[in-house]
Amino acid sequence: MAGKIACILTCAAALGAASSHSREIQLPTETTALRASTLPGYRIAAQKCSICHSADYITLQPPGMSLKQWTAELVKMQHAYGAPIDDEDIKPLAIYFTLTYGDAGTVSDADRLLPGPEPSVAGAPIDVQALLAKNACLSCHALDAKLIGPSYHDVAAKYRGNAEAPTMVGGSIRAGGANKWGPVPMPAFPNLTPLELQVLAAFVLNQP
Amino acid sequence: MAYGDSPNRLPASSGRRRFLRDAGVVLAAAGGGGFKSMAATQMQPFGNGERELVAYPQKRPLLRITTRPPHLETPFSVFNEDVITANDAFFVRYHLANIPLAVDLATYRLRVRGKVGSELSLSMAQLRALAPPVEIVAVNQCSGNSRGFSSPRVFGAQLGNGSMGNARWTGIPLRAVLSKAGVAAGAKQVTFRGLDAPVLPSTSAFVKALDVDVATAPDVLLAWGMNGKELPFLNGYPLKLIVPGYFGTYWVKHLSEITVIDEPFTGHDAWFMTTGYRLPDNECGCIAPGTTAPKTRPITNLKVRSFVTSLANNAVVKVGRPTMVKGIAFDGGSGIKKVEASIDGGRTWRESTLGANLGRYSFREWTVSITPEEPGPFGLLARATAVSGETQPGEATWNPAGYARNVIESLNIVAA
Fold it and tell me: Which is it for the CA torsion B282, B285, B290, B296, positive or negative?
């Protein structure tokens, strides 16, 4: 009864002056992007940095920063801001940023030729847990609770009975997306192989 | 509770949001959602300084620093329009990308907790009823305002001089709320958290702390009004902490939680006090470039600054004729004593006439007449002195984060 009275009061107030009770904004679409590159650091950056911030956080930085300075900044991102980058990500990221936005002269010839991650060997087993960890998937998704992104349970429920689901979900992981599940966009994961995408999509869609 | 899972925030995909879209007010950017960013750009006078002018909700086109989270800078010409910065031109700065996109006053509550006699959960209506509203004119300036001019350059948001603004804030003293809750004896600090949150749990939340004696000073407000209007959403609707004389980092937006603590503020969510927003702990807050400060302290009070607003860099004035120059000055709360201008490289200074006094935390307008006698380029310098005696250094100091720049500004002007 008390609840009902409270509702009458607040609802009446809300109806009487709806405009004084709620405010909502829509932000302009994100348009900035990192400069595409064949360097291994590009794909790591496109995928991991963009989890927490837009590309202009990087493209805005002063020109002429050295490999040492970019490396220190990445270590700061990893440790001070809790960025989901591994120790082995730091070097390729720093090389990509320095060559693309900084003082390229501070990068040695050997570093310029730093190979990318080993491509998956055809037929080798894929460890889905390692894939989830390596790509920081579980920073934003949980199996059965909404975090930043939807739970895998909710994704599976949405696509249940849809024969195209594995292709659609795999495509969403590869290309990223925005405004489907919430305000924070999901970055693209262009470095995943078709097989890895298939395994991840199956893992998500098999959630109860 | 999962981050971002606050009752104050509305999940963007919820039915609640759909209801709001119908019943409430949707503040869309000019041009509506999904519009292409405008072609207009403005160049800051440092490397990689091109900025797009983009209109955000309730804002005229401003210089976009970053997109997610939004960070917008005021074009400097705005400061010549009025000593009060218009709401739609006031800069916007967030740290963490999980920002609120909707607030409903029916569910919004300000919580007061920690070392208090009784915890509070206040609606805006209850908050407003706690004390008679007060107004104060005060400058809000980013710690990193002018960072782009750091030499050598430093990482961070590459700001020109427009990440500041002066507004008339309306609210109630924070101490009215603290006194309602009853601050426990032995309390040391008060922490402030808003509705903006980190994307990942591994990132610190944005929480700021003030010593109890600062938090209970009469001028510290919880404000809902800005220049006689409701706070713009991106400036912290519905409630913003106003700390006159302090850098903007303390002016927490979308304020939702106040916690009184009786020990130093530490831990995972204290990063923006314990590691970020700190200066070398010496008088100038500066060190030699490339060195490390042995000790640091949290940034606090604004340093005295002055700017010419009526002339832009490379403006042309008449030779042998007087030109009236207008500008603004401010400091950390003692007030402006005088502003002087020089057109001979600082050899001689001419004192300006100060404009209306809107209070010791406000921009102070000033005007001075200059008459260049020779044709050709010259430097126009402006130097403010605060009532406290503090004045601006002739050479810029340096600190690793590029905070608190306050060197005497110099414009290149041409007499013809």
Answer: positive
pLDDT band per the 50, 70, 90 thresholds, residue A10:
very low
Residue with tokens 């390729």: A92
**Residue B60 falls within a domain, yes or no?**
yes
Domain assignment of residue B298, yes or no? no
Instruction: Based on the fold, state whether residues B207 and B262 are members of the same structural domain.
Output: yes
Count of CB pairs separated by less than 8 Å, A with B: 169
Q: Are B216 and B223 in contact (CB under 8 A)?
A: no
Give me the interface pTM, i.e. the ipTM. 0.90
Q: For residue B328, count other CB atoms closer than 10 A to its CB.
A: 26
Q: Where in chain A is the domain with CATH 1.10.760.10?
A: 40-112, 128-205
CB–CB contact A22 B275 (8 Å): no
Q: What are φ and ψ of residue A169, in 5° steps?
A: -70, -40
Question: How, if at all, do strands B364-370 and B41-43 pair?
Answer: unpaired
Does position B205 have pLDDT exceeding 50, yes or no?
yes
B18: left (phi over 0), alpha (psi -120 to 50) or beta: alpha
pTM score, two decimals? 0.87
Q: Is A7 on the interface with B (CB under 8 A)?
A: no
Last residue of a domain, one of B236, B260, B276: B276
One DSSP character per residue, B120-185 reads EEE-HHHHHTTS--EEEEEEEE-TTTTGGG-SS--SS----S-SEEEEEEEEEEHHHHHHHH-BPT
User: Among A164, A169, A174, which Cα is nearest to A207's?
Assistant: A169
Domain interval for residue B241: 46-276
CA-nearest residue to B22 within chain A is: A18
Residues 109-168, chain A, touching B (beta carbon < 8 A): 139-140, 145-148
CB contact under 8 A, A21 and B238: no
Give the architecture-level CATH label for domain A128-205. Answer: Orthogonal Bundle (1.10)
The whole-angstrom separation of Cα B117 and Cα B175 is 14
Give the whole-angstrom CA distance, residue B157 versus residue B144. Answer: 7
User: Which residues 6+ apart lie within 8 Å of A95 measured at CB?
Assistant: A39, A41, A67, A107, A111, A112, A114
| Burial of residue B387, with CB atoms counted within 10 A of its CB: 0-12 exposed, 13-18 middle, 19 or more buried | middle
